[in-house]
Amino acid sequence: VQLQASGGGLGQPGGSLRLSCTASGFTLDYYGIAWFRQAPGKEREVVARITSTRSTDYSDSVKGRFTISRDNGKRTVYLQMDNLSPEDTAVYYCHDDADYWGQGTQVTVSS
User: Fold this and answer.
1) In this predicted model, which residue has the larger pLDDT, 96 or 27?
2) 111 CB-near residues (< 8 Å, 6+ apart)
3) What is the Cα–Cα distance from 87 to 54, expressed in whole angstroms?
């Protein structure tokens, strides 16, 4: 069982990035997935969740800018991040209801 996070990198303020979390070893369909992030010197925080029935929830800090979605056929959950700000700089992790974590992907927002 594994979650593989990818898609991080350097983004510009006001720009966009899309993260992917791909599952292997299990059927993603029945699990909710959340994206967390951890900035240097700060605690890990949840930024977005999507349930198995595609209900979504967002932290106030990303609401209206980030969109979480899932493609069960591709065993992948996405985090579309728009209108990026330097405060979004962090390592992003995906996590499922069975308490598995992806390895993290670095997002840096800087001009």
Assistant:
1) 96
2) 12, 13
3) 27
